[in-house]
Amino acid sequence: MNNPLLKITNLELGFNTFQGEHKILHGLNIHIKAGERVALVGESGSGKSVTARIILGMFDELTSANFSGDILFNEQRLDLMTKAQKHSLRGKEISMIFQDPTSSLNPTFKIGQQFYEVLRTANPKIKKQAANKIAIDWLHKVAITDADRVLNSYAFQLSGGMNQRVMIAMALVNKPSLLLADEPGTALDVTVQAQTLNLMRELVTQENTAVLFISHNLGVVREFADRVYIIYKGRIVEQGKTHDIFDNPQHPYTQALMAAVPRITGGGIPEIDDTSERYYDPIFIHKGGEEIGDPV
Amino acid sequence: MNNTILFAKNINKVFGKGKDTVQALSDVTFGLQQGECLAIVGESGSGKSTIANVILGIFPPTSGEITFLNEKLLPERSLMLKKQIQFVQQNPLSALNPKKTIGASIKLALDVHNIGDKSDRGQIIDTLLLEVGLPIEFKHRLPAALSGGQRQRVSIARALACEPKIIVLDEPTSALDVLVQARILNLLNKLRKERGISYIFITHDLAVVRNIANNVCVFNQGKIVEYATTDVIFNNPKQQYTRQLISAIPVIDKSEQILRNKLSEAHNAQF
Ligand SMILES: Nc1ncnc2c1ncn2[C@@H]1O[C@H](COP(=O)(O)OP(=O)(O)O)[C@@H](O)[C@H]1O
Ligand SMILES: Nc1ncnc2c1ncn2[C@@H]1O[C@H](COP(=O)(O)OP(=O)(O)O)[C@@H](O)[C@H]1O
Ligand SMILES: [Mg+2]
Ligand SMILES: [Mg+2]
Questions:
Q1: A33 located within any domain
Q2: Is A294 within a domain?
Q3: Is residue A56 part of a domain?
Q4: Does the pLDDT value for residue A295 go beyond 50?
């Protein structure tokens, strides 16, 4: 049996506060196979971004953050790696795209320079000219035709949609096996968002890149992901293949979320509780949504 | 039938001078009926907030005029006019004074517009909080101690306190989670029906519009490209720009998918 590319087991997270520990994640189990597009969906504050941050090791030095659980990436225990080992994975084996491209790109360097730095993390000896060629090639892949101009620009000189494409190209240029995409395109207009996500989906399919796609938008998830985890207050409440989750939601919380989404076909908006005891019901796992042989 | 409460006629708004001018609104004309929810939709930068500001009298149009209850609105608004056209914005935290309790914020609106007897104002505040679905004890809290949805309810209560004829809502649910959004939309619907208020509902979210508005103005680059009933906009839009906008909306069920496909085919057929 092939092991998954990423396997998170019993992930717990709490932050120390003046009132004691504030628990955020209550034992998440998530797995992603090579090349698989997996979504983590839930409301704000449910624990989506912190999950991505833990995978990237961003809480390792934060003394107020306590976390436990196994994180297996490519058969290696991420949670046991040294800082240097983790650092060498980042940007190469695992890369990340954030919600707001304009603020995640460095404002003081031209796009071309930033591409060069990204390429150097994978190949420290790469020459500027070679890097430039690769960058142009990748900008073409994200449908940027005037690549020379873009490489010579600063992020603030480009539109939001253009910056998001640049981010996608930079995130994929080192051919990572895993991409963490946290609310990509949320800040963009729907028409631009639709184009950007289509492009991203085509590229990760071509490159066989696995994606953890974090979003609060059910519609976007339905179009992007093969498989879905629904998260509520730090607990996975339902998981399954995308069409099973959308055509046949089983958990009360998932059902409430789906009912609350306004439809373009109309029908009004039903009265739905924004909190309920039933949202804490045990997890529902659809057939085909589990990892075979895995205790969940 | 003529219950037109507000009419915007040939509104233009130009910002800046010389080569830096931006024509934010071009020849915008629409009417608002009593009790109607009129949606203004468009992508970012299409002029939605600019028309809101012009209606609220925050700045005057460059040309064109607005009539309210058959009277021409002047750049200098009387207190009475300010009371009758209220505003609810996207981020309720920036709209509420962080140092004032919820009760004090609502009371200020009652005091400024001299609504009710002084001795009754405490009672009015309680009634308003209940009407927007908040516990009365919340009047002692500061905005920071409330969730986003609760703060938006406070903004709505404060607007209602003024007994307005019109509420301009600029992306009122765009920062909220979908479950919270559903509850706020239902609250807004209920208040409109019970009180006969009119809404100008500004948003970039067409799916929300479908479920809340009677009529829709589609804005693109400061112009109204299509103005029709909500049914026509979603089932039989005349403009390809409108079809393109609807076709880009991520949807979650099959009947939505069918509608979207139908509209995008009609869109593609034009080329
Ligand atoms: N560095 C931190 N210190 C304390 N609390 C945090 C920190 N980062 C996130 N949190 C809290 O963790 C919870 C989950 O946050 P997050 O993962 O960002 O939510 P989302 O699902 O919206 O991405 C929130 O309640 C947030 O306030
Ligand atoms: N105070 C201002 N000065 C100059 N330009 C402005 C100002 N306010 C808005 N604009 C411009 O007017 C256009 C419409 O803006 P706005 O009404 O805020 O759009 P929307 O609310 O639809 O996103 C944009 O091009 C914007 O940059
Ligand atoms: Mg987040
Ligand atoms: Mg605006």
A1: yes
A2: no
A3: yes
A4: no
Chain A residue set in contact with B, beta carbons under 8 Å: 43-44, 189-191, 193-194, 216-220, 222-223, 246-247, 256-274
Where residue A240 sits, what CATH number does that domain have? 3.40.50.300
pLDDT at B65: 95
Question: In this predicted structure, what is the pLDDT of residue A296?
Answer: 42
The neighbour count for residue A121, using CB atoms within 10 Å, is 16
Q: Tell me if A293 is assigned to some domain.
A: no
- Spatial strand order of the sheet with B215-220 comes to B85-88, B166-170, B198-203, B37-41, B215-220, B223-229
pTM, to two decimals: 0.93
Number of structural domains chain A divides into:
1
Would the pLDDT of B270 be above 90?
no
Domain that holds residue A133: 6-285
Nearest to B207 among A191, A259, A264 (CB): A264
pLDDT tens digits along A153-188: 999 999 888 999 999 999 999 999 999 999 988 888
Ligand 1 mutation pick, A11, A12, A15, max ligand atoms within 8 A of CB: A15
Contacts 24+ apart (CB under 8 A), B49-52: B49/B170, B49/B202, B50/B13, B50/B24, B50/B25, B50/B222, B51/B8, B51/B11, B51/B13, B51/B25, B51/B202, B51/B219, B52/B87, B52/B168, B52/B170, B52/B200, B52/B202
